[in-house]
Automatic annotation (TrEMBL):
Belongs to the multi antimicrobial extrusion (MATE) (TC 2.A.66.1) family. The chain crosses the membrane at residues 164-184, 204-222, 242-260, 272-293, 299-325, 351-369, 389-409, 430-449, 502-521, 528-548. The keyword Isomerase does not apply. GO terms for cellular component: membrane. InterPro entries: MATE_euk, MATE_fam. Keywords: Membrane, Transmembrane, Transmembrane helix. It comes from Ascoidea rubescens DSM 1968. Residues 50-60 have a biased composition (Acidic residues). GO terms for biological process: xenobiotic detoxification by transmembrane export across the plasma membrane. Coiled coil: none annotated. Signal peptide: none annotated. This is MATE efflux family protein.
């Protein structure tokens, strides 16, 4: 229970209690009023002394809107506009500081005094299960490369090109659009509008299932013709198209998993997807063995995309079972008000802007990397195979800073939704520190174990030599790729995906890719030159995103926008 008392000093001295103070000025008597919202925890403080620490938040509301808003939360305003309120938030909306919330969520949105060190500890704790989750999730494609890589160069190249096309035209769009939930669900949860969290999740699922239909039709009926236009090797085109056709079976399941994963993460539940993937990852290996190498069940090369497609359906099934049968005291189903088809297919305009910018952020970066893959095919088959291994390595190492980015994004969005400005600032600083640490760790591990890691994917000496030529460049890339991941997460938490979309779209294609082509083909640095250009692009992107996400944000404006998004649908 959370108590709002007219005299904070008279509140019983209970270090476990939490005081939330709303101070209405005389302006409430007029048409406009300003709402100063301060949150204290662990100890009680005078509200006026803490307004500067939390940054305050100023929003214009008329008195009717204030009354209606508070009434929907079962609150009461005294006739004296100067008086404080007494609220009981132990209702259907719940509270982010309710005693029922478990330690994981308390770490995420705890309202005690903050520091950069505390934020580092909280982010690290939240990101640990995410690291396992994303590493296991990315292992699906790495396992395919591993098994198919031992079938031959052509099959390895086909898996690479098939997954490249899937990433550009499908997976990147799904992930990009789903990133809107990092902002919307987390900010709604931070503002304690729990039902809206579930509504946003349903809308995102409905929107993605609608968008994916023409994409799957392209994969099934037009992909081979398209690939024949850009590739000279017809067998390579045919095998790549077959990969897409079979992989299309699993795409609806992948959509459900990405949205449900973010639905849980916005509530501070990061371990659920880890539990699911701990089961699905060995299942993926087993399926590859059965469908590729086992004589009685093998279907050869096509076993790789089929194994991945089956796992794409097992993953959301696992999350649904967790939602139904979990005994987590946070009770994630409190944010699920039942399946509502009418709500799922309305209000898309309120998420479409964030979704489009999220898609541009993800797709532009995905496409930039995949252009390198396509470009490497014009160097030699060995370069294409080497680039396939490099992409698998880069994808795996990226999951570590990306996990931190998701934790930062979710945590930051919760703070924005709860109007906690100082916590927002410290969360951002902590994220940058962790990104540098993680980038250095990735770089050191990759450089120290380059031979062992490379030989895990292939035994072809010609391919290995191509990889070794790029190792120094790949080591440096780890640092800037880590910074890129964290700054993107910060922008998502702030709801500033537009900055990220413009930056990624312009920098990669005006700077990164041209430099790659110049060094790779004109200067004859070949595959290493292509990756040096990518390193330049990532460096510029991380600097620009860092400037707008860390140095320049207007927290008052971001909080007002988050409140607007939440309050406009308060009564759904």
């Amino acid at each position: 229970m959370v108590i709002l008392n007219s005299n904070p000093k008279s509140d019983p001295e209970n270090t476990e209690s939490t005081l939330i103070s709303f101070d209405f000025s005389n302006e409430l008597e007029n048409s406009d009023s300003r709402l100063n919202h301060s949150i204290f925890a662990n100890n009680t403080y005078n509200a006026n002394n803490n307004e500067e620490d939390d940054g305050g938040d100023e929003n214009d509301y008329n008195s009717n809107k204030n009354t209606n808003l508070l009434e929907t939360q079962h609150t009461y305003i005294s006739n004296d506009s100067k008086s404080k309120l007494k609220l009981n938030l132990n209702d259907s909306y719940g509270s982010v500081v309710d005693n029922q919330i478990n330690e994981e969520t308390l770490t995420l949105v705890s309202v005690d005094n903050t520091s950069i060190l505390k934020e580092i500890q909280g982010i690290t704790k939240s990101s640990m299960p995410l690291m396992v989750t994303f590493l296991l999730q990315r292992s699906f494609s790495a396992v395919s490369v591993f098994f198919v890589g031992h079938l031959g160069k052509t099959e390895l190249g086909a898996v690479t090109l098939g997954s490249m096309t899937a990433n550009i035209t499908g997976i990147s769009i799904i992930i990009g659009l789903a990133t809107c939930l990092d902002t919307l669900c987390s900010q709604a949860y931070g503002s304690k509008n729990y039902k809206l969290v579930g509504v946003y999740c349903q809308r995102c699922i409905a929107l993605l299932l609608t968008i994916i239909i023409p994409i799957l039709l392209f994969w099934i009926f037009l992909s081979e013709s398209f690939l024949n236009l850009i590739l000279s090797d017809k067998k390579l085109s045919s095998l790549s198209a077959s990969y897409l056709k079979i992989n299309s079976i699993g795409m609806p399941g992948f959509i459900l998993f990405e949205c449900l994963k973010r639905f849980l993460q916005s509530q501070g539940i990061f371990h659920a997807s880890t539990y699911v993937l701990i089961f699905c990852s060995p299942a993926n290996i087993l399926l590859h063995c059965l469908l590729i190498y086992n004589k009685s069940t093998s279907i050869g090369y096509l076993g790789a995309p089929l194994a991945v497609a089956i796992n794409y359906w097992l993953m959301p099934l696992g999350l649904i079972l967790y939602l139904v049968f979990n005994n987590n005291p946070i009770n994630p189903l409190k944010c699920w008000n039942g399946l509502n088809i009418r709500q799922a297919f309305k209000g898309w305009s309120r998420i479409i802007t964030l979704a489009i910018n999220g898609i541009i952020m993800i797709v532009s970066e995905f496409l930039a990397f995949e252009i390198l893959t396509l470009s490497s095919s014009y160097l030699s088959l060995s370069s294409l195979a080497a680039n396939s291994v490099i992409m698998s390595i880069i994808s795996i190492t990226y999951q570590l800073p990306f996990s931190i980015a998701i934790a930062v994004s979710t945590r930051l969005a919760n703070y924005v939704g709860a109007n906690l400005v100082e916590k927002c600032k410290n969360c951002v600083k902590a994220g940058i520190i962790l990104s540098l640490i993680m980038g250095l760790i990735d770089a050191i591990v990759l450089f120290s174990f380059k031979e062992n890691i490379s030989r895990f994917f292939t035994n072809d000496e010609e391919v290995l030599n191509e990889i070794y030529k790029c190792i120094t460049t790949l080591t440096v890339i780890q640092i800037f790729d880590s910074m890129n991941a964290i700054t993107s997460g910060i922008l998502r938490g702030e709801g500033m995906q537009e900055i990220g979309s413009i930056t990624n779209l312009s920098v990669h294609y005006l700077i990164g890719i041209p430099v790659s082509f110049f060094l790779g083909f004109k200067m004859n640095l070949r595959l290493n030159g292509l990756w040096i250009g990518m390193m330049v692009g990532l460096t510029v992107v991380s600097v620009i995103q860092g400037y707008y996400g860390i140095i320049k944000p207007n927290w008052d404006s971001l909080i007002r926008l988050a409140r607007y998004r939440t309050e406009i649908e308060r009564n759904i």
